[in-house]
Design goal:
Rossmann fold; Thr_synthase-like; six-stranded mixed β-sheet; EC 4.2.3.1; binds pyridoxal-5'-phosphate; alpha/beta; pyridoxal phosphate; 23 helices; five-stranded parallel β-sheet; 499 residues; single chain; Thr_synth_N_sf
Length: 499
């Protein structure tokens, strides 16, 4: 399998090179040049496999320049029962006859980002070796909260790598911030940026495409790569759990092989749901992909009207990991549905960066709305959904997952479609405990309490244990306390690398 840029500037590179580069030199994203198809028999074989075996069965098609040994080693280092606290890695919880919940937050940092960021460092280090690269890899990441910690944890003390994470100073929760500023490891840095996630993400993209800096880096033996979902190495591991969930439903007799299901995905940067799209293109029987947003509903509008318009106020919501107005991975979807038309895609992206909006042609719009259905949930609907699911099902969900369930309810009302549905649950309720406790037990219960007291309260009241990764966070030493402006991000990087 070879990869090419969505903007046409580079093609026919191996997966190792795509993973190492992160983003294409023309500012585009790497995508597979050809389509992978699994037969129904191959999907059936997944039913009796472990998560690790399923991962191998999917990944080997996309990263076929890695040896079987290299793939196995990466998978086994990433997805261990020890790290995920459960054998299934990505368990499917049956909420009722119609709805199952795909729990993607059992990893070390309690959000779905671990599914990709536990394996990415292994793929990247092997990529460096395979391509004969000699420099030290410098991983840059912008984070709306969850990627940062997951990337720091994934790359900590990995030889031949350094990692620098930028997070919006006031855009992350107390738990998320502490997770990042207390990070241990000899090769890790986290820096607060004055601004929102989009500022951090744009800043990182600018650093990546800065020719002069990249030459200077090379002279000093450094090479940039990305831990954001613009990196194909983050996307490809996410395809696995869609197949895994489907195989679990078949295995339990909830559906028959070949039956279609819906997936509901709480969406920000469009990475998670794009992996679902690739799974569908590979032959996974999918009826509809439901794109759930919060009040930063730029994707809802895009999918419903064909116009992407980021010129609107950025809202801070109770689902902060989805507070995003520029969904990078949409570019990959556009490339796929236009039949790999890099000219069109580059044109839209240029228009977006110049004017803040673009409109796709009627044909592209139709193709997208045939597959995707989109709506959004505001904060009060999100809180109500958390309460409702707990009262009716005795099951505790976080705010992002609640956005998904609320949007799914809207979908059912609007379409009358009762196809079996999998809701993708992207974070542990403990990670956003302030909102969860408030939703379940009222405003009084959270008043004047820190997120750390609330961990205990949530645990005691609901009878569920606090995840390992969140215990004792408030007693850890603060190791990173830098704050910078967006315009200073490049200098921060240079100063960390002493160049
Ligand atoms: C990152 C994140 C999302 C959004 O995922 P994308 O791939 O960016 O669309 C949703 N929920 C949580 C908890 C996240 O951390």
């Amino acid at each position: 399998m070879f990869y090419e840029s969505t903007r046409g500037g580079l093609g026919s590179i191996t997966s190792a090179e795509a993973i190492m580069r992160g983003i294409a030199p023309d500012g585009g994203l790497f995508v597979p040049e050809t389509r992978v198809r699994l037969t129904p028999a191959q999907i059936e074989q997944l039913v009796n496999m472990s998560y690790q075996e399923r991962a191998e069965a999917i990944l080997k098609h996309y990263i076929d320049d890695y040896t079987e040994e290299e793939i196995k080693e990466s998978i086994n280092s990433a997805y261990s029962e020890k790290k995920f606290g459960c054998r299934e890695i990505a368990p499917v919880y049956r909420l009722n006859d119609n709805i199952s919940i795909l729990e993607l937050w059992h990893g070390p940092t309690c959000a779905f980002k671990d599914m990709a960021l536990q394996i990415l460092p292994h793929l990247l280090v092997k990529a460096v070796k395979k391509t004969g690269e000699t420099g030290e890899m410098v991983i840059l990441a912008a984070t709306s909260g969850d990627t940062g910690k997951a990337a720091l944890e994934g790359f900590r003390d990995v030889d031949g790598t350094r990692i620098i994470v930028f997070f919006p100073q006031d855009g992350v929760s107390e738990v998320q911030k502490l997770q990042m500023i207390t990070q241990e490891g000899r090769n890790v840095n986290s820096i607060a940026v004055e601004g929102n996630f989009d500022d951090a993400q744009t800043g990182v993209k600018e650093i990546f495409t800065d020719r002069e800096l990249s030459e200077e880096m090379e002279k000093n033996g450094f090479k940039f790569s990305s831990a954001n979902s613009i990196n194909w190495g983050r996307l490809v591991p996410q395809i696995v759990y869609y197949f895994s969930a489907y195989a679990d439903l078949v295995g339990r007799g909830e559906i028959k092989l070949g039956d279609k299901v819906n997936f509901v995905v709480p969406t920000g940067n469009f990475g998670n749901i794009l992996a679902a799209y690739y799974a569908m293109e590979m032959g996974l029987p999918v009826n509809r992909l439901i794109c759930a947003s919060n009040e930063n509903n730029v994707l809802t509008d895009f999918i419903n009207t064909g116009t992407y318009n980021r010129k609107r106020d950025f809202k801070k919501t109770l689902s902060p990991s989805m507070d995003i107005l520029i969904s990078s991975n949409l570019e990959r979807l556009l490339y796929e549905v236009t039949g790999h038309n890099s000219k069109m895609v580059a044109g839209w992206m240029e228009k977006l960066s110049r004017t803040g909006e673009y409109t796709v042609d009627e044909d592209t719009k139709k193709k997208i709305s045939k597959i995707f259905w989109a709506d959004y949930s505001n904060d009060s609907e999100t809180l109500k959904t958390i309460e409702c699911i707990y009262n009716e099902n005795n099951y505790v969900i976080d705010t992002h997952t609640a956005v998904g369930i609320d949007v799914y309810d809207k979908y059912v009302i609007s379409t009358g479609d009762f196809t079996k549905t999998v809701i993708v649950s992207t974070a542990s309720p403990f990670k956003f405990n302030h909102s969860v406790v408030r939703a379940l037990f009222g405003e009084e219960e959270v008043k004047g309490k820190s997120e750390f007291e609330l961990l205990d309260i949530l645990s005691q009241k609901c009878g569920i244990p606090i995840p390992n990764g969140l215990q004792g966070l408030d007693r850890k030493e603060i190791r990173h306390n830098k704050v910078c402006r967006k315009s200073e991000m490049k200098d921060q990087v240079k100063s960390i690398l002493s160049i």
